[in-house]
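Just wondering, does anyone understand these tokens?
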Amino acid sequence: AVETYERLRVELAGLEVGLLHGKLASEQKAAVMERFSAGRIKVLVCTTVIEVGVDVPNASLMVIESAERFGLAQLHQLRGRIGRGAHLSECVLLFAREVGDAAAKRLAIMKDHADGFTIADLDLEMRGGGEYLGGRQSGQLLRFADLRKDADLLKAATEAAPELIKNQADAARGHVGL
């Protein structure tokens, strides 16, 4: 980010270019964001520190370098930082000349879809459900449900769990191996 910032300051002489990354002090980050929000900084170079919680309605262009290295959720979060105002917005994904099959599929999904629920569903389809209950972390591999196919069952179980824990704590513990 620092190298890109230094290069763009030269290439875009006449425009104020800002830099934002996680190693800046909180006061510095706040000052940069205030200048960007006010429109004084025209180009903001930053790391993924801006992924969540940044709301600058006039931000209308985002360029994500090495987009093939990010997951779908993170790409969607980053893209969501723009297009919040009245201006048309664009998100440009720059990626390596050659990418693996999984990265190519993620990039295609980002190109073809803007809806977060659709992207999350496709991400789940690609990567699987992961460790929903964290069973692998405690030395067990728990297989209960397919998060996509068994959504109704999981919803019902989630709703029933507090009652089971309250009224039949020993049986509930037995079901999760405690």
Remarks:
- The helical segments are 2-11, 26-37, 72-79, 101-112, 116-127, 151-167, 169-175.
- The beta strands are 17-20, 43-46, 61-64, 90-93.
